[in-house]
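Quick one: structure for this chain?
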Amino acid sequence: MSSRPANGAGDALNSGHDRQFPVAHPAFSPQHRRMIREKSHGAKAAPKSPAKAASRDAARPRNGVIAVAPPSFRRERALIKRGVWPVAGCDEAGRGPLAGPVVAAAVVLDPKRIPKGMNDSKQLTAERREELFEEICATASFAVAFASPARIDRDNILRASLWALARAVHALPQTPQHVFVDGRDRIEVPCDCDAVIGGDALVLSIAAASIIAKVSRDRLMCKLAQDCPGYGFESHKGYGVPEHLAALDRLGPTVHHRSFFAPVAAARRKHQALSVAGNLIAAESQLAVETAAPVQVSI
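Got it. Here's what it folds into:
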């Protein structure tokens, strides 16, 4: 039995998937005519504003680069509205180097005098970091703490870093009621603490602390370079670049190096072996001289 519609009008409205049905005529559209935007004949589109077009082109990422917003004061401001103040951000510099201390900083920004252009210290040039360092010191309260290579060797780099961060918070002129710290680990402070992964790129107070810590450590490494010439501390700041590794191999470690970091330990073993070999050669030479020397006996 055929499922074909009884009226003739239905013959034209079909999907055309069965050979017994005629194909639908193009004039019949499945959409309602009000759902179809009709182009006006003879009417020209309004010209686009050059200013709007330029603004849109400037905001559009080029070559697949995603624009990243700078750190904001949003989290601190939300706490201030709830009556929580002071709010501090803290960060450290120098976890990765082979030499020098870990330097931690804690900063409480003044909401009415926030320096412009602050960002994660790694995203700024050395010149811009120095400028922002001076502005932050002039407008905010801050404290800096150091974890020495000896503490790093004793406690390990993570514990030494967390110790320095907590010490910087405790050293602030006024005890904060809330602390934001960069990273995944919270620190031991007498107030609420939030660990923010990638916080130096998200939280403005942490970004300020990253600048203070980075500039403070860079200046310290330049001073250490005067005490330990030949290692290039003033340029690489203790990081394991080829220049530093070559100096370690040639000169051996200093008291400012972290003994348990692999390149430092390897250089120490090499120079200790050379020292032992040199002492053996010196002892053998002295013995040969004593054996060859004539013995004079007075009667």
